[in-house]
Here is the input.
Amino acid sequence: MEETTLNNDIHVKLTERFGEKVTAVSEPYGLLTFVTYKDVIINVLSHLKEELKFNFLTDITAVHYPGKDHGIAVVYHLHNMVEKVRIRIKVFISEQNPTIPTATTVWKGANWMERETYDLFGVKFEGHPDLRRILNMDDLGVHPMLKQYPLEDPNRVDKKDEFFGR
Amino acid sequence: MNHNHPVFTDNDPQSELVTLNLGPTHPATHGVFQNVLQLDGERIVSGVSTIGYIHRAFEKIAEHRPFYQITPLTDRLNYCSSPINNMGWHMTVEKLLNIQMPKRVDYLRVIVMELSRIADHIICNTIIGQDTGATTTFLYLFQFREHIYEIFEEVCGARLTTNIGRIGGFERDFNDIAFAKINKFLKEFPVALKEFENLLTRNRIFIDRTAGVAEVTKETALEYSWTGPLLRATGVDYDVRVSDPYSSYQDFDFEVPVGTSGDIYDRYLVRNEEMWQSLRIIEQAVEKLKSEPKGIFHADVPEFYLPPKQEVYNNMEALIYHFKIVMGEIDAPKAEVYHAVEGGNGELGFYLINDGGRTPYRLHFRRPSFINYQMFAPMSEGMLLSDAIINMSSMNIIAGELDA
Here is the structure.
């Protein structure tokens, strides 16, 4: 997809600074998206905050892709309010050992967003000041947004995709 | 921490501090929130917020619903301004599907969204009055929320959880009664709002209770990802309607009010001014509608918009589209999209990942109440208990949006 000039600038600046660590750059619906790695994610976030003026952390969440090597994607949405640009950063981490450094060192507001992500996906944010469950009860035992936990009775067959030609 | 029992954070019998369980059901909190506070006399020493009492796992449920069945879930996020959530969700899917709305639909949506913003702010501001002891103002203005709900009832048949509109437009056109009610509202509401302001804005008791209480700086507000009237009260002019216009907001002439100190009084003033600006927007929208072709209330996208029932029985294409839409078989691009709207409390974002299945692969709601509320406990430290109560009402935390 063709990049707009503003997004292109950001892309060039990020590649200058982080080189090969910025991969899979795309621009779905005009929103610059790239993948990076968990050893540099805090550097990337602080660089974006301090140097490129992405002063606002919009959201942190996660997505589960079961069966892949790195099956959990932690997704950050940042916002540059002055130039009105948004950016999306993804970090793929392993399902067996889902750890990633905490972003609370960059934004205090990351606290509850990370607690929610931990609660729903089991992502352990290293260095988080208070990593407890937030929405579910403490003794739930599972992280319910992972795809292996069905919403309804798993024996139910009338909603399976193969019955609809998929 | 066991959620089923009162929580004591301080077990020292010699301690001078008192542990107070404010919530989960406390008449002063207007919702299901629990805060365990350590009090030294009337002053709060520390607090711990516990949320999740009405967590309904909407993000999980949404992974098992076709797009059009997710609208009723969004109703129940911020149920004080459901139409904004509904429209936000419709626009997210329309962005995914690359559907352009006709101008008339955009303007109708703007009317509905601004009316619900007024309803939302009425609740918050009258509740601040109520909590500072001014019940009269609450009773004066609250009836206009009823009038707004009557308009919604005329447009979609429901009042609180509206499920208003469809992906691709509205389910039916606004009728004449709806327009008559909107015009009546535009005529009567300014008078009442002026009266409300006369009662509160320069009221000595009200100013004493709210001015200088719970002040927040710009830097702190941005650090904690605040949005909406709370952020604007601190002096940051961020409004999604202006910075990222959706639904033709760029066609309208309105101002974004900002405060200076971020205290409760500023939040009250910002919300009041936003109601005036919303009125201006609705007036402009009603005026603009007069020059738009009549009778258009949805985009011409038969593959995504449910056909009228009589068509389904008489027309083969309509039957096919009806079947495909109801079974969730619409052809949506495999992509991910983030769309934000300015909700009553701030930036309401929808992060949708579609993998071509019948349901979203992942849907995440960026809920402003959830993100705004995390500052409540830290900012309560050192505050009087009675101030913390009005601080909570001025943050307009809606339990449904907090817990999703």
In short: The radius of gyration of chain B is 22 Å. Residues 17 and 40 of chain B are 5 Å apart (CA to CA). Chain B has one domain: 58-403.
